[in-house]
Amino acid sequence: MTKTPYVLIVEDDEWLAQQHQRMLEAAGIRSEYVAHALAAIDAIDAVRPDALVLDVLLAGPNAFTLLHELQSHSDLAGIPVIFCTNSADELTPEDVALYGVRYILDKTTMLPGDLVACVKKVLP
Amino acid sequence: MQGSKGQSEIRQDGLPFGDLSLLVTAAHELKAPLSLVRQLSLSLESSGLSASERDRLVHQITLTSERALRLTTDLTRATRLEDSLFDLEPVNPQQICEEVAHELRPLYAARGREIRVVSRYRPVLAVANKDLLRRIMLNFGDNALHYGESEHPVELHTRLYDGGTKIRMGVRDYGPAVPADVWRRLQSHIGTDTQLLHARPQSSGLGLYVAGQFASVMDGQIGATRHRDGATFYVDLSASTQLSLL
Questions:
Q1: Across the interface, do A57 and B201 touch by the CB < 8 Å criterion?
Q2: Domain span at residue B233?
Q3: Which of B182, B186, B175, B196 is closest to B224 using CA atoms?
Q4: Fewer CB within 10 A of the end CB, N or C, for chain B?
Q5: Do A38 and B38 touch (CB under 8 A)?
Q6: C-alpha distance from A85 to closest chain B C-alpha (Å)
Q7: Last residue of a domain, one of B32, B63, B81
Q8: Which residues sit opposite B122 in a β-bridge?
Q9: pLDDT digit string (tens) for A40-75?
């Protein structure tokens, strides 16, 4: 039986997180969202996601703190990450590739289908 | 009575800091609500939405736009402080808190949050400009919205201190503690710089800067207290002696 892919969304704007979740679920991708990095670590401990959709600036520890933590665990370091941020113009794919970031989506220009397209590309 | 005119940081052309940092910060801060409005609008175009979902999205767009507009209105006002005189008068802080809570309550409710006024027993009056004071508290309330646990309301409160000569009006939130190093940076810049508080990305550094400018016009100042479970942003003002003379 094929396992339904599961994506964890880390986004501190609940309304935007709900939009992401709606898009993913319409595409048959199960997802949950959490608001900050500490909650993300708990969620990842509970269920290892197939991909992570991650805002960069978060309340408390930011996305890079979370990624450092994931990189320190061999079983979690390989989780593909998609950045979804308003700060996309301050990041380059080369800078963040080491953290497992496969795509950078710019919230100011992305279209609703972009997130689903990126997630589908990184799913195993 | 009138508040002191202008601030030393404001240039004649109205740009604080003598450079473009305010504009850059304003542009950066408006990105978040604008991109959210855009995403919500795009979602409205998609098929398969129920009537209630559409209503919810429209409501979210309205509230997000209003928050962004509050910031732009404050910004406009802050850059015109040089040219303006602001009447100071005895103002009831409790009433301001009630008005601010009333104005923010729909936004809080839509986010599943609650805002409330902590009642006080002894009436106090502050020497302030009512509109500027209201804008300061709206700023604090906007900032507090995104931090804290949904089951714990954000609280607006007023108290006397310094032997009853000063009034502190604060907005207390309950949420993840801000790291100590970030807090130290905030404390050294609060109200004088537009830097974002990175551990609270949806906080408005610009909003705090503007609040600091407004407070200064009323011979007051803003500040913040870090708690183990959140923070209080406050404005200190002189207490009016009017009531004590009665």
A1: yes
A2: 88-238
A3: B186
A4: C
A5: no
A6: 9
A7: B81
A8: none
A9: 999 999 999 999 999 998 877 889 999 999 999 988
